[in-house]
Structures are given as C-alpha cells and as structure tokens.
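Reminder to self: tokens first, then the designed residues, so the page reads top to bottom the way the pipeline ran.
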C-alpha cells in the first residue's frame, strides 16, 4: 500500500491557510481518483482505494501540524509497510515560490514542525516528501504568522491551477516510485509573477 499524507490543520478556520496546502492536495486527489469521502480513523481522516492496481490511502492528520506524526504511527503496525518506499508526505514550503513544487526522496525537516513530528514518529528521515511552494514569505512577517494566514483569492487560484500537475507527480510516485517522479517533475522553479 502507498500512503500519501497531506499535512495541515483541522477545522474550517484553517481551510484556506498556506499551512493547509497538503490537505488541499489530498482532497483534490480523492476527487480525481474517485476514492470517496474522508472518514475519521483514529488521529486522521482517511480515504482508501486502488489507483492503477496499487492500493492507496490518502491521509489528513487531525492532530494539528505539530503532532502530525501521530497519524503516521498506525501505518507502522503493518509489517509490510516500508516508509522509505510507501510513504509520501505533502507539505507547504514558504521557501519555494507559489506555483512550484519539489519532490525529495529524503532529507531534513528544515524547521517545518509537521515534518519534524513525522521524523520523530518514524525515527528516520528516510521517506519521500513533496513540498508545495507557498512563498515568498515577507521578510517582515514571522513564519508562524505567514503560514497561518489565508491565501488571497489570486494565490488560491494559482495553487488550484497547479494541483493537477502536482497530482500527476503523486500518481507517478504511486506507480513508479520516487526516482522516476523526481526525474519527471522536479524542475527549476520559475520566478513568481506579480499578483494583480
């Protein structure tokens, strides 16, 4: 089984925030892959199904960002689950410009509290991650404030326009693995265009 964990914060007050880019992708994939509604399953909302003959689970932690690792722990009970092969964590990244994304096979949390929690739960940095650009962060605004601020309508439109391509990257990871997905979809980020 392949597990795609979209990080975010639960509750309608966070639905349009930059920190919820992972939730937005998980919801888009559930619709595109006709997996059905997310249902509460322990510390997460989960939908499961089959995509191109591969069992998949889309997971949205309900523990708030700083405790996202709690939603990963149930996956580790399956002796056949190998996080380095079967887990893709999707998160926001204020260091990447809006309209871009990057796949990585492994790495550090880079100060992202959700990824830090996942690493703590796994006791490893050896898992794939997909970072969706929500930047640039204004120099005068603290990171915590920036990621919890809502997207403007124009920013949200740009993100929603990108999600089908990000979904193709996730589909490639599901069917072919992280190497082919990175080779196909990682490209030099384009500079952000000024918003109207």
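Designed residues (196 positions):
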């Amino acid at each position: 089984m392949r597990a795609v964990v979209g990080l975010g914060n639960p509750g309608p007050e966070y639905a349009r925030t930059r920190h919820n880019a992972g939730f937005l992708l998980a919801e888009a994939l559930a619709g595109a892959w006709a997996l059905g509604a997310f249902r509460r399953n322990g510390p997460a909302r989960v939908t499961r199904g089959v995509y191109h003959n591969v069992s998949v689970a889309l997971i949205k932690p309900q523990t708030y960002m700083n405790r996202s690792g709690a939603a990963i722990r149930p996956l580790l009970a399956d002796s056949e689950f190998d996080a380095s092969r079967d887990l893709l964590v999707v998160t926001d990244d204020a260091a990447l410009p809006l309209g871009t994304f990057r796949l990585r096979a492994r790495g550090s949390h880079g100060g992202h509290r959700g990824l830090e929690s996942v690493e703590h739960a796994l006791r490893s940095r050896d898992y794939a991650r997909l970072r969706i650009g929500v930047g640039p962060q204004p120099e005068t605004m603290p990171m915590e404030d920036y990621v919890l601020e809502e997207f403007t309508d124009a920013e949200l439109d740009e993100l929603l326009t990108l999600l089908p391509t990000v979904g193709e990257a996730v589909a490639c990871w599901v069917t072919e693995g992280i190497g082919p997905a990175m080779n196909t979809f990682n490209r030099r980020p384009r500079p952000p265009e000024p918003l109207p």
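The radius of gyration is 15 Å.
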